[in-house]
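Q: Entry one of two.
A:
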Amino acid sequence: MLENYTPVLLQIVIAAGFAVSTLIFSAVAGKSARRNAMKDSAYECGMLPLGDAQPRFSVKFYIVAMLFVLFDIEVVFLYPWATIYKDHVATHGPAILGFAFSFVVILGVAYVYAWRKGALNWKSN
């Protein structure tokens, strides 16, 4: 029975050995490098790190991000429904289509509400 676990144990030993050897090599090679103020400074996409570390973002940014997540979840729920619809239509009939349609209608009402409130208008105050 133990021979069934030999490949798993071997993989764990190899993975742990690789991790340890990589860390040791990184520590040894890192100590031999020349250090100066320019190399020790923070690198931020080629820009000098000046100003506040945490800039303020508009509330619109977060509202649009939350709306994106909300409507992205709709696709996550509708994709599995669409893939099994063909198999379940024989047993459940048109009721399964009604459930999905009501889900889309509720999210459509939420979309229209957000649109009328101006949540999707990036240029507004």
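Q: Entry two of two.
A:
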Amino acid sequence: MSDYMFSLESHLDAAQNLILAETQRLATDSGMNVWLTGGAMRDMLRGAPIRDLDFTVERDAVRLGRHLAEAAGGRVVSEDPLRRSVELEFPGRVCASIANARTEKYSKPGGKPQIAPATIHEDLVRRDLTINAIALALNRGTRGLIVDPTNGQADLLNRELRLANSGALFDDPSRIVRLLRFRHALNFEPAPRAQAQLESALEAGYASSIPPAAYTPELRAIAMEACAPAFLEDLDARGLLKNVSAALTGDKLNAAGLARFEKLVSGVLPATEKDGWLAFLTVLLEKLSPRERSEALRSLNVPKSDIEGLKALESRAKKLESVLKSAKIKRPSHVWLALEGAAANDVLMVLYHSAARVVQDRIRAYYQKYLPQAQEITEAQVAAAGAKPGTPKYDRIWKGLVTQRLNARPRKVEPAPEPVPLSAPIVMSSRARR
């Protein structure tokens, strides 16, 4: 195994490693070459957690994606027939994408591209930034080989943002927003040439070609990051938020509310629970009128399921707050049961709006004390009590063990006995010594 493969597998959790292995197996069985690319490689090389698995193949990505979803118990979220790509979700909160290696030719900024099959090298150099143009071979003969035609690894070391090709912003002006997002999310600075290209693209009016829906994936990617307010203020200062909503500027941007929201995210929720997109949207659009909010959501092309979730979010948060205020909650297990399974969106809305100290304290206690203790109950302990995973009995016994652990009184530490003092040495007088 190469050092890169060892590093990759060390950065993935068990569920992600399962999807990686299954993808390699299916690609090999189909005679396809497959690479791990994009954000997964960028994050691995800079030592950050890998959020999504991005695969590139030189043949039919959609077919491979469907087979992978079927084999690993996942589902196809979306397909792009033009770019021959597929988005997937799997158990364990694993998200993945599989796309064909391709070239894209544009006749005008933001126009519909002409797509053609390509090699992995050609695919990498047509991408946005050099740090996203790195691939790791997962094929039997070349497994663990790095492909880095634009020297993105050097830019990761230098903490610089460099465009992968001279036409990157002309071809797809939405990369302007993406460049600014990485500037804040990674705290990388654009290289001098990239900065000049950015300014030229803005002066030439390329931003007017950015469809409002192109902002959605960038907002979603940075929603739970502490730098989100700074990113949005940067977009506002450059006049880019007008593309989303003419009202979403200046004071209506709710920068103060976003800053408080991000402080709650980083100070309370663990990394594994940071999926508060709907709560973020609620705070982002908080100062808009109902009509302005509806127009902004329509511009962002927010799916119907998310809009329905937004409508129900306020009532769910109020219900959760009422439960947490209840005088019936007297023991740690009561707090755990109230919050176990609660959506991060609901918890964040309670934290953001509730002024009740007891509610704030109970949420913090849940994440900082009770949840870690509950996670210490192992599958082996539940199995020893005679339950099989996936059965109602297993869930009942697990909850019973967690309740017992949380409510157990801590053992009183007995103080160590004080050491017995040594007898004082006998000092003989000079007369006695004589």
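A: Comment on entry two: Residues 429-434 have pLDDT under 50 and may be disordered. The longest strand covers residues 94-100.
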